[in-house]
Specification:
Layout lengths: L1 H28 L18 H12 L8 H24 L12 H18 L1 H12 L16 H17 L3 H28 L7 H32 L14 H17 L3 H31 L2
Helix pairs in contact: 1-3, 1-10, 3-4, 3-5, 4-7, 5-6, 7-8, 8-9, 8-10
Length: 304
């Protein structure tokens, strides 16, 4: 039940935040290694409002939800595993020290382990989500343009060209991305909740406590995770040759070095604003739904 609750909470949040995830993906791919567009070219994704206008103009209003199906699939698989494992570890007492209180080190470790496990299982869905979200036309097109007709066609095409291994291409990058993000998010979320409960800041209100803890954890998560998110997006979206090798990057380290060399530190933080605007409400909705669903589960089963 804990795994189902984690996946349901993430999907509930993902429906609302997918447009910002789409914008983040487009911004991260625009001007990739300074090759996508010539210097002086007007950036169609220079801010969130311009991005929305570009997407609506090119793909229609429904284009803002491009890649929704694999995005929700990724949230379901990744977060049902991540939150389910983390909640299980917490109930087993593995996140607490000898004093019985939450240990910062154990919170970070088990949060990262849970996130890494969930992300590896959900890698094919993230791969397809990224490639579909990058697809557009004209000046709105960024990065390598795949020709998928939908989620199932994307899976079929990738499997046909590269086999099962192709569906997990870039898994190391997303493992590192999610391990860092999850360890920061879940550890700070738990620590902030403990602080609020200790001093009864919100009079033990589940909703207000979860919301405030989510804002803090969401901001810290984005600061730590954005460079790895940029690298993951670019590795997943790059084209491959007949042997399944990336056309631009060999691995996570090669992508990091090339991005930093061509675009500087700013290139590693592309899409920071939409990622934060997405992460803040997504974290609030996801972890608040998670806490609320757990409370409702307790009330429901206590009636039996």
């Amino acid at each position: 039940m804990d795994f189902v609750i984690g996946g349901a909470a993430a999907c509930s949040a993902g429906i609302f935040t997918n447009p910002l995830d789409l914008i983040k993906t487009r911004q991260q791919l625009h001007g990739e290694l300074d090759r996508a567009k010539p210097r002086g070219h007007q950036n169609p994704y220079r801010n969130i409002f311009t991005s929305v206008r570009t997407i609506v103009k090119t793909d229609g209003i429904l284009g803002l939800q491009k890649g929704l199906a694999p995005a929700l699939g990724f949230q379901l698989v990744m977060n049902s595993t991540r939150l389910g494992l983390y909640d299980t570890f917490d109930k087993l007492g593995w996140t607490r020290g000898k004093s019985g209180h939450h240990s910062p080190f154990l919170l970070v470790f088990w949060g990262g382990f849970s996130g890494a496990t969930g992300s590896v299982l959900a890698t094919p869905l993230y791969l397809v989500k990224t490639q579909i979200q990058a697809m557009s036309s004209g000046d709105a097109a960024v990065g390598h343009q795949h020709q998928h007709r939908g989620m199932l066609d994307a899976f079929r095409t990738i499997y046909k060209d590269s086999g099962v291994a192709g569906l997990w291409r870039g898994s190391v990058a997303i493992l590192c991305r999610t391990a860092v993000g999850s360890s920061v998010q879940l550890s700070t979320f738990t620590a902030c909740k403990d602080f609020c409960h200790k001093y009864e800041i919100f009079h033990n209100s589940v909703f207000l406590t979860a919301c405030s803890a989510s804002v803090v954890s969401g901001f810290l998560m984005v600061c730590c995770m954005t460079p790895l998110d940029v690298i993951s997006t670019r590795l997943f979206n790059q084209g491959v040759d007949e042997k399944g090798r990336g056309l631009l990057y060999r691995n996570i380290f090669d992508c990091f070095l090339k991005t930093f060399k061509c675009e500087g530190l700013r290139g590693l933080y592309k899409g920071f604003r939409p990622m934060f605007y997405r992460a803040a409400p997504h974290t609030i909705l996801n972890l608040t739904f998670w806490d609320m669903f757990k409370k409702w589960k307790g009330l429901y089963f206590s009636l039996d």
